[in-house]
Amino acid sequence: MKRLLFIVSVFALSALTAFSQKVQLLHFSVEAGSYQRINTPVSIDIEGVAKSDTLGYQLCEKIKGQLVDKPFQVEPGYIPRLWWILDGTTEAGKTREFYLFRVGPQDLKNSITTELTKDNIILKKGNAEILNYRKSVLYPPAGVDTAYKRSGFIHPMYSPSGNIMTRISPRDHYHHFGIWNPWTKVKIGNHVTDFWNLGSKQGTVRFSGINSTVNGPVYGGFSVKQDHIDFQGVKSGELAINEVWDVRAWNTEPVEGIKAYLVDFTTFLSVAGNDPIVFEAYRYAGGIGFRATGEWNRNNSTVLTSEGLTRKDADGSRARWADINGEFKDKGNSGITFFSHPSNRDYPEPMRVWPENQNGVGDVYFEFCPTRHKDWQLNPGNLYRLKYRMLVYDGKIDKAVAERIWNDFAFPPAIILLKK
């Protein structure tokens, strides 16, 4: 079996247990299934539990006959979920036992938090910044056409040691913005609009509001709205595409022996008008794009995909994950591994990888591009999702680590309730 299975016994909410006179809500076991698990985020549906609030709950693991507290948090919603980290190493085929109680408030030290400023949403682990999301409009350098202004992107993205991984508004491509995902050739009615190359003045992307932010001992993050604005429609400045970004960082140590973050990036797309639109096939388009730091070049950086391809031959190929790693002067190596979810459009996804002679020195750009080879029609009334995970780390990783983390991402927990 290729999934992480939760075996759950649900007791009456009023039942008292022998454990410190607490009210026992759930008793369940976690089976690793076919894969080794290391510090893996996991969750369980708690629809039957009285209230979706972290306060008032206690999660414990039974270890050698003793109950040990575990950090957790509740994701509210129509069906709330309890999230925690399956900490340490759980070998394939092994089982671990847990209890959920109703008790006092939880200690929220060392959480993942969001901080709002005038310009940014800052995602942090403790006092260390993980990433900044740009809310306000950023203008290009002085003397450059202001058509290159925009908001709604991630920069800086930091490695755990503080290396800045991303780059914005470089002289060679003023329309590059750290980590972002605009669409290049979008057929709207009888015209095609480019939301990527801002200098064409055909379209742009704008931050348009915060849906929510969340802080917690297991994950923190935010949900934001972004508008794709068409300057070529019947009315210049019309809203063409609604977009929601959900970004969250997990409070886990996903790789033994090195410092690393796990960051999930999910984008939801819908048509704003009454007629279908088409993302036309092109080598740059949507998904998730990454313009790397200017410190990297062909001599001090590497690309490796899940299919074993490198920067020499990865462009246009398909992959489940791609690792981009590079050296920082006097600061060692850092990298980002990008993971594509099996539910994504045209999976395994095609990629755009810049050649080794890009801009003469070998500047680094990577993108998962779900419309590299095929048009994608979006119909009004439908919601479309693309889901990615990023492992942001210091040092270097090998293929086995990337495969393990992809397995966690691709094969999420499955819940099995036991009848009493």
Brief rundown of the structure:
With 420 residues, this protein is an all-beta fold.
Task: Please outline the helices and strands.
Blueprint: E1 5-10, E2 23-31, E3 37-45, E4 57-63, E5 66-70, E6 72-75, E7 81-90, E8 95-102, E9 112-116, E10 120-125, E11 128-134, E12 154-157, E13 179-180, E14 186-188, E15 191-193, E16 203-214, E17 219-230, E18 238-250, E19 260-271, E20 277-279, E21 288-291, E22 301-305, E23 318-319, E24 321-328, E25 332-340, E26 349-353, E27 365-368, E28 376-378, E29 384-394, H1 399-410, E30 414-417
Parallel strand pairs: 1-30
Antiparallel strand pairs: 1-2, 2-8, 3-7, 4-5, 4-8, 6-7, 9-10, 10-11, 11-12, 13-21, 14-15, 14-20, 16-17, 17-18, 18-19, 19-29, 20-28, 21-27, 22-24, 23-26, 24-25, 25-29, 26-27
What would you say this structure looks like, in words?
By secondary structure, this protein is mainly β. The chain folds into two domains: 5-107, Immunoglobulin-like (Sandwich), CATH 2.60.40; 112-410, Distorted Sandwich (Beta-galactosidase, Chain A, domain 5). Helices cover 3% and strands 46% of the residues. The chain contains one helix and 30 strands. The protein has an eight-stranded antiparallel beta sheet, covered by helices on one side. Strands 5-4-8-2-1-30 form a six-stranded mixed beta sheet, with no helix packed on it. The two termini are 24 Å apart. 43% of the residues are buried. Mean pLDDT is 91; it is low at 6-20.
